[in-house]
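ENTRY TYPE: paired fold submission
RECORD: A
CONTENT: sequence, then structure tokens
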Amino acid sequence: MSGRAQLMWDEAVTGYDFGSSHPMDPVRLALTMGLVRAFGLDGAVDVRSAKSAGDSTLRLVHREDYVAAVRSASAAPGSADQAYGLGTVDDPAFAGMHEASALIAGLSVGAAEAVWRGESRHAVNFTGGLHHAMPGAASGFCVYNDPALAIARLLELGAERVAYVDVDVHHGDGVQAAFWEDPRVLTVSLHEHPRTLFPQTGWPEETGAGAGEGGAVNVALPAGTGDAGWLRAFHAVVPELLEDFRPQVLVTQHGADTHAEDPLAHLAVSLDAQRAVMTACHELAHAYAEDGRWVALGGGGYAVVDVVPRSWTHLVGIAAHAPVEPESVIPASWRDEVYARTRQLGPARMTDGRTPSWKPWEDGYDPADRLDQAVLATRRSAFPLRGLLA
């Protein structure tokens, strides 16, 4: 198995563009790749593209009529059928929508294939993580659900246990829905509470159904949760589940919209805590997944200059076993690129100046604390279904 991580990239992903007034500005992808290059990480990974997901691959998750509707809206955006979630405020139709969405999906599927086949232990597609798309509808800025498609391809290739951990500020509803009754897939989502944020799902009582009962785990965090609470919740839930499940592959989604500066949500997490969770996911993959197999995806994130590029550059460095130190000064060449593209001043260092710490769950909990209440609700709902102590 290769020691070098794979980084999935194709300049054409910036064609995933909902328009100038939409929060999901594709400049965030270009700036991330620019920062990866500025730190020389493109020399520490194998950078490659992949085939766009074809219809047979897309149908592993999406309905045939939905794929046809996306193709139609892509060719004639004015004819988009809102019954499929297309042509809406969240998911405006645009020319080439099918092609750009299928490419991003293909990159995630390609990452999964590379890891499964032993071409690399780790693969990153920060352009992916579009976790809200449903089998028959676009949702939440997501047209095709590339994390679900990557997992479905792993199952098709013979995987019997795949774990998906989603730390985006929004619930990973589309991935959960895709594998709701499938015992081969464990989905874990840490997100802002559905009372205060889209998509209003991800309650701790959502635990799967049928043969998949206990296969969905949701941690609904109170608005305002910061580094200590976020890290405490992650470590109180995720490692124990992965130790028990022993996935053959770990797939993780690293939406950067948990950050305090993100304009669309209400958590207060720092870049340094995001980096800490990425490092933890890397360590958990080596501890519990077969041969350390890890597929890491991007996701949300709408502070497109100050947060997203730094966060996902850290992700690439961690996956490459060449982590960027938080105190690293950001190269002037990249800051010049930021100004040229956005007329904004880019950040100067790869840190928010925080040193994240948290109180381990094993040290006890406070039943009157809102964060601890959230963790308790998750453990009590999901853990006994897996034979674990709440």
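RECORD: B
CONTENT: sequence, then structure tokens
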Amino acid sequence: MNSLRRRLILLLVASIVGVVGLATAAVISVRGGGPPPELTVPWIAQQMELVVRLQPGPVPDVLNVQLTDHPASGKVARAETAMLSDILRRRGFDLRAIVNDKADEPGQVASVQLPDGRWAIMEVPHVKPPRREWLVLAGWISLIVAGATAVSVYFTSVLIRPLEMLEAAVSKIGSDGVLASVPEVGSAEVKATAHALNQLSARLKTAMESRMRLVAAAGHDLRTPMTRMRLRAEFLDDDREKWLHDLDELDRIADSAIRLVREEVNQDAVEPVDLERLVRDIAAEMRSLGHQVSADHLDKVSVRAGALGLRRALRNLIVNAATHGKGCSVSLTTPDGRAVLAIADHGPGIPPELLNKAFEPFFRVNPARWQSIPGAGLGLAIAKEIVERYGGTITLENLPGGGLLQTVGFEAV
């Protein structure tokens, strides 16, 4: 019942069925007792007058009158009896008349005593309910519900189409934060919504491109003054090594910023990638560089991603674990049709209040490590950008016995 579509459908169906049900009840209440006596009794009196005038001859079958020796049985309807007697008397017939209610079914019967002593019996016009009236009523209500449901589903779809468009557009936001183009077709409201979304997408794209150009230009322009500073530092005698170390750090920051922008702009062709083989190659590469990286259980599985980008992302994660975590172990499993890569290190982990900031650019748990461990603090940010671009997920959590667990998940192919 949390769906807006279901709520609207139920509301429309209930409204339509309620209105038609009330109208049906009103009609039944008005028509249920048959025509009023003011219409039926004068007609009965006219028919009885014809019967009297035709005596002593035969009575035509078209009059639908029965001649018997006694009046019809049943409870006497006093008001109708008085009305029929009065009408006959005003027409000049001083005859005895009785109107009785039928005992076994709805309706009434009029009995008039003819001059020869016989009784003329005629049914009073009455609208009889149809046989199996409950089945008829159930079919009528079922037809109303079916028609109301079809109408409600159609108009509900029309009403919530702009909302569905918003949901579809938001769900298609790319890794660059830009909305996909929405076709501007349909009603005026739908066109206005699509036009607003496309304008928003264009503005977001312009803002993202401007940000990327700014970061790339800043990283590129930093290299010229840093080169001049490096040349000047070569002629210094005091603190020469400190100056060069700081310049190397600035150079790494500029290069990392440029690489981050390139990851957002340049995208590899998506193709099936042998994740098990890729992880083994990266682990072997890290061991050759002196890092303590062990590959535990690795399932054979492939994922759809860009080979170069995915390699760069996983390498950043493993390097981060090996350097900051004093070595790490890597495992690859395939639960429920997903490829799950777990990278567990042996370091102190990250304080819980800082876990949600670990993927921010230039993030460091301990600023004092800025000098002790090379890097600009963009490794996790770049890895997250690449993994999410290919539809994957990446999470961080502290292990109970100490250390940090980095988990990467992809749909297996």
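NOTES ON RECORD B: The first strand starts at residue 66 and ends at 68. The chain is about 55% helix and 15% strand.
STATUS: closed
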